[in-house]
Design goal:
271 residues; Four Helix Bundle (Hemerythrin (Met), subunit A); Arc Repressor Mutant, subunit A; 57% helix; globular; mainly alpha; two-stranded antiparallel sheet; 2 domains; two-stranded parallel sheet; 9 helices
Amino acid sequence: MTTGTRSATASGSEKPETRQKHVIDKLRTWASNGTIDPRRKLSESSLAEALGVSRTPIRHALAVLVEEGVLQRVGARGYRVRAYKVADVIEAIELRSMIEGYAAKKIASDGPSPELLAALKQCLAEGDDIFENGGMDDPVNEERYAAMNLRFHTLIIEAAGGSLLHQLTSLFDRVPFGAPDSIRFDNIGRKDREQHLHYAHWQHHHMVSALIARDGARAENLFREHGEGVKISLGISKGLFAIDGSRILPIVDPDSPAGQINAPIKDEADD
């Protein structure tokens, strides 16, 4: 399952700079959460049609995303999503967990503000409602969970203060499945996915409790453990689920047979 929720739908009433940001954010999300197959050659015309915009904002967005390392050029006028090795994805997830743990420890040392606690508790209530209205015969709304998860983790980084933390986590957002709103599973059934997300949300509850108790060490450890769940869901770390070793695009492991799906592909003819 793939979902990305960091951008809204573009509309004709948007200002040019707002529409431009929407296009960049949308393409970045599609690239990082696996919506765009890295084997697919992208063109300005196809992306403009998919987003319902002209080629001008697409052209600028492609240049920005190439500079960020999200996309790579193919031939004269083509682009592809940059594929990352499994080791790169693991490193991004672990480093993000370390930084979030550091942020949580910093917040706990002084105690969370009433405003932060209120916002975090709103996230907890939202997550609780997601699982109360999902499961059994009704599947959990994973897109709604992704939005809540992004909000929760963003609150922690913002509350810790300092632009450097935000800059660092923004770097990890560019790596496939490195962002909190990129929810993706590798060969895990629906019930197991729901249990996995529910467990992750219980961790959110324990994180908030640790912040309230001003227990920085526990808060930090919880965030680090939280990252392990992401690796398990992607099938790049062992967990409770039966993973067959396959990989999710755009993660590539050239040293394993499963990784050959992302083997180098010959460039197609230019558009």
